[in-house]
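ESCALATION

Customer reports they have been waiting on this structure for their group meeting. Please prioritize. Original submission:
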Amino acid sequence: MAESTTVTLDDISSFKKRALLWANHFNTFCLLDSNQYPHIYYKSEDWVLAIDTVDELICGENAFEKLKVFQAKAGATIFGFLTYDLKNQIERLESRHTDHVGFPELYFFKPRYVITIKDSKVTINRNYPETFELIEMIRKIKINGGAPSTEKLKIEVRSKKQKYLDNIDKIKAQIEDGDFYELNYCTEFFAENTVINPVETFNRLNENAKAPFSVFFKQSGRYLMCASPERFLRKEGNKLISQPIKGTIKKGVTKDEDEALKAQLQYDLKERAENVMIVDLVRNDLAKSSVAGSVKVEELFGVYGFNNVNQMISTVVSELDSETHFVDAIKNAFPMGSMTGAPKIEVMKNIEQYEDVKRGLYSGAVGYITANGGFDFNVVIRSIFYNASTNYLSIQAGGAITYDSVPEKEYEEVLLKAHGMMQALNAELA
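Update from on-call: job pushed to the front of the queue and completed.
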């Protein structure tokens, strides 16, 4: 097995862009970028680019058991994703809607090349002199300097505004009837017969958002461009860490206005109610895999600032039970409660009734699993999905509907969440 070599470079920013252009020549790659975000607990890897496949797992049925076997065989860190529709393997559920993007339900790969960057140091899993040859080859790649098109891309909405508002009223009626407490309701923004440059689009999205769990993933002509602020689940030693987000408010124009908006979010009773319901759900999910009595809330209602929005984040931790396989810990917590609602099984049944497309990779998770069973996965939100074979582009966004939800405000929140992706695409609603 090849060792790794570390080199110090003075052109890190341009090297990252060139490395992505090089990676895009391959069928598969995965970039994980924390954007050096300073305030999130338990920071992840700074910048990791996994390229090309030595081995890969593409599966639908019995996915979690197959993942155990694949990870044990790999003998190295593997990268991949889990789509929302794996819920149908965990519970007696179904997904009848169309998936227009077409990612497989579960995909992991053992990469041929792994490039990691921390500060000005570049590490590649190759010996001298191959590392230097790769670096020089990447540095010679030309960066396209052209300005993005001034013509606005037209994006359609799958559920028109009035239908979205009417559905929220129906969801609230079910909440009043006691069917469930909170339901995460999403809609799709899409464009057909559209050609984009995924690398340039991701670079704009990532530069604008600087999110701590950003991902750029290519798998057989399908692209995920993700600026997620949310962690699904991390295993660090025997410690499990989940950081659900519930609660969103816009950024302020000035520092004083931004602090006032953060305080408004911090003490908003509706947002706190949403957050605590999901925290309770996460505690229950982690308890299935953890040592009795080890589940704790390390932080409740923390408010964090990001480039585009402010978010309310809580941190729940536990100790993995030695009798539980770490893949089962992922399975027991999936899909994440922040993207379903509570109680989880009942709301997942109802989500299918209200939404118009399969979620697919949206509200799934992307991340890595190390050879010794450590892992870190994000929540796939604030994302652009693109199928280069069919030229189909998709954005999904939504919010948690509770008894206190005001339909117009919920719709405004959806538009706020979609804004960063629309901006990266130079797009507007049709």
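Sent to customer with the following note: The chain has a mean pLDDT of 94.
Escalation resolved.
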